[in-house]
Amino acid sequence: MKRLTxxxxxxxxxxxxxxxxxxxxxxxxxxxxxxxxxxxxIDGRGGVRLSRQLSSQGCWEGDTxxxxxxxxxxxxxxxxxxxxxxxxxxxxxxxxxxxxxxxxLVGAAIIANKNDRDRRRDDYYDDRxxxxxxxxxxxFRCESNNNRLNYCGIPGRGHVEVYRQISSSRCVYARTWGxxxxxxxxxxxxxxxxxxx
Length: 197
Description:
The structure is a single chain. The protein is α+β, with helices and mostly antiparallel strands. It is built from 3 helices and 12 strands; from the N terminus they run H-E-E-E-E-E-E-H-H-E-E-E-E-E-E. The chain has helices at residues 2-18, 92-124, 129-133, and strands spanning 26-31, 38-41, 48-53, 65-67, 71-74, 79-84, 138-143, 150-153, 160-165, 177-180, 183-186, 191-196. The longest helix has 33 residues, at 92-124.
C-alpha cells in the first residue's frame, strides 16, 4: 500500500508539473490583413485565449483563429489580442481536468495490475500444487496461533508450497504466508502443512 501511494503521489506530481499554468501572461497581437491567413509565434504550453477583438470581422476559435504549442493563427480578417499563458488561460481548467483524469487512469491501472498480480499469485500458490509437483521431498507444519506472526524453519532446500491447510482461516501466499530466506512465515490464523519440492 505504501508503494502504491508513493507511486500515485509521484505520478500526480509529474502530471501537475506538466499541466501547470504559467504564472505570467503575455499579450500577443495577431492580425489577418486583407482576409489572409497569418500565424504569430508564441509559447502555447500555458494555453491561449482571445482577450480583445480588434476587427469588425468575427474571431471564432477553431474557425477564424486557433493555436498550437508554437503559434497562434488568424484568418479571414480576424484581428485580435491574445493572452498567452497565465492563470486566466481558457485551457487551464481543461488542463487540470485532464491531469485529474490521467491521474485517475494511472491509479486505476496500478490497482488493476496489483489485483491481477495477486490473483495470478493466488492461483500459482494454492494448496493444489502438491498434485502438480508430485510427491514432496519433505513436509512440515507451521501455525499462526492467536493470529500471531510465526516463523518456521524450512527442512532442506527447494520450492515451498501449502500441502494441506488445517486452519479455517485461508492461507494465501504473500498475505497470510510466505517464504523469507530459509524459513516460512504465517500470520492471521493460517495453519498448514507445507511441502518442500
